[in-house]
TrEMBL record, chains A, B, C, D:
Subcellular locations according to the entry: Membrane
Gene Ontology CC terms: membrane
InterPro entries: TMEM175-like
This protein's record includes keyword Membrane: yes
Protein name: Potassium channel
Family the entry assigns: Belongs to the TMEM175 family.
Keywords from the UniProt entry: Ion channel, Ion transport, Membrane, Potassium, Potassium channel, Potassium transport, Transmembrane, Transmembrane helix, Transport
GO MF: potassium channel activity; proton channel activity
């Protein structure tokens, strides 16, 4: 498959994921300010997940930069990444509509963990495909940032059932950490 | 990131926003003309927001015309713009399903204000990136039209709680004002 | 705006319209064959509207074939076409969920009429833009097919309140009539 | 129509199909683990259908590889394929929300059968268009894999009303069978 078709399909899926989450903001039946209160946690969750999808979209384009043809294996690893991201609207809604309760907070983290692990595997696969002089390899090195995120998600998941607030703060920290664009890759590839 | 991937992602998000708003037109259970009456305000709101998304899509493509590579900062400012626009289906539904009540009218304006401000910042950032001979700068000048819209939104927001009708008329005026395509930019870039 | 961005945005909107209509096929709560009966008219309506959106997508790509830059006016006429098509999921659902009652049948036709008229105006505008040797003009001539469809819709709309079945059959006939691809245009442009 | 516009429209439709299925995972009102139990079958069905859409997207790009212009007939056969795939969210939801009951299991298979048959016809049409030295023909031969899938679906459908579990296992086997990328085509076309 040509790279740009994979990219445009992934972009389509990410654009839909990011947009359907807004449908969870159920429209209040009354025009009072108090009718907005129950939506506040859902709105905060929307922001967090919007940022996460933004990050993935943002980083996704770095991956295939040097490949022109994409093999069947890469296609499926990419689909697995999209699969986990497609669950974000569900886990976001479950967490935020239940006042950030422990179990939904844990599941939210598990989906983030699975998505970031898929991303990591995808990255490794592409580096392998590119071979010895892989530009992506030069750009991300050992991808300490990616590994660190996975570790933080694991910590967050372990805390979720006891202190869900800690987990939520950790999810936020990882998000902020990634908003800063990956200048390493930009430097090497541009 | 290459410009065209940012454009196609933005187009995807805008296409979804513009289309899911139609889902708010709940299908009446009866085939009588009277069953359409409650939908009329929702339909009018749909038209207004459709025009707004159309305007943003319309103007959005001017922005990146001269850039080939898009930096991480621009990516995020663009995502912030999309974030505010993604709230339009919510604010449209809240306003129209509550008979254009004061508070929802105010919130509708706040989201328009945030979107237009994000657009303005995005424009400024791109001009900065393009440097001294920025074509976009030549095209939009000081973007009096953009600044004026922001001022009108601010006026509309202040009126919303007292005379929501004035605010709604102002939102409509700004929309009509922008439907007329930006010939300034077309002149310079074509 | 460059032609291909207008095309991909239109494709996006059409792809969403065609797909969200399937959401109206409410999933029955029981696994019995009888639970499918109420869905049958909705399914038939889905087929009809799917064909219509398919036809528009199909013909849409002919339009901009020879243009490289698209003017602001064309952009808005195209958006008006998309606006009317975006109402198809609503009119389809209203008609089919109310057993093809007269008024919804009429509204279904009105939306088709508005869409085809917008298409016709868009075509005329493009021919005007292309100038004297317009390839599109050579291809569609006076667009008898387009004009005829508009006339048939008008007839169908007038019958809707008295004999809705006649209108529905006319909608179907126009659809079948257009499924046959527009070889005139293919001949000239290829 | 140019090939790439057909591809991007198909990608759009497939991206929406794959993503709206996740909306069927209704968000539980309670944060308990037990509230997830009823979602488990829906989730399993989501995985299966996600894989199927992935497979179609995956294979779809092989088809038009050697064509630059797409005829009207091919456009409509492609739309028929998309039509059947667009029914997957419905049949998936009906099957999984009714505990994999016989009739919904049968309908799920019928839609798979119709989709794979449409795909087969599309393939044949393209081979015919390409003529004697068709690269697609060289790549897929007689498409034993495609024919075999159709046969397995037929068997699965016949078992559905008696032993739906057998049918479900057969659907899964065909899916796994196709996940392995079509190296035959990759070999010839690359």
């Amino acid at each position: 498959m040509e790279r740009n078709r994979l990219e445009s399909f992934s972009d389509g899926v990410l654009a839909i994921i990011i947009t359907i989450m807004v449908l969870e903001l159920g429209v209040p039946k009354s025009p009072d300010i108090s009718s907005l209160y129950p939506i506040i946690p859902i709105f905060l969750g929307y922001i967090l997940s919007f940022i996460y999808v933004g990050i993935y979209w943002n980083n996704h384009h770095h991956l295939f930069q040097t490949l022109h043809k994409v093999s069947g294996t890469l296609l499926w690893v990419n689909l697995i990444l999209l699969f986990w991201l497609s669950l974000l609207p569900f886990t976001t809604a479950w967490m935020t509509e239940n006042h950030f309760a422990p179990l939904p907070t844990m599941l939210y983290g598990i989906v983030l963990l699975m998505a970031s692990s898929s991303y990591f595997i995808l990255e490794k696969q592409i580096i392998k495909t590119e071979g010895k002089n892989s530009k992506l390899k030069q750009a991300v090195g050992n991808d300490t940032k990616g590994k660190l995120s996975i570790v933080v998600y694991l910590i967050a998941i372990s805390f979720a059932l006891i202190h869900p607030l800690i987990s939520q703060i950790l999810y936020l920290i990882v998000a902020i950490f990634w908003i800063i664009p990956d200048r390493r890759i930009e430097r090497v590839l541009d």
